[in-house]
What does this fold into?
Amino acid sequence: MIIRPSTALRNEYNEISKLCKDKQQPIFVTKNGEGDLVVMSMEYYTHREELLDLREKLLDAEAQRLNGAKTYSIDEVSSKLKELINEGL
It folds into this structure.
């Protein structure tokens, strides 16, 4: 966990920006010794949001499966994909 004081944002912005990008993790910023903000690179933020979105979709799919939604075997999916590909040719 990387922790920096809030004054570092003002005085060491370029170094903090580089650290966020190099380490690919958030930096926790304190104010008066207490946690205040979290700073991260746009790339890390985007990646994190994509992972959270994927996790949400997987949890939703699992909930649907547990509630009786139709599921397909690997063979059924493979067969359907081949059928779709052949129709496109």
About this structure: The first strand starts at residue 2 and ends at 5. The first helix runs from residue 6 to 11.
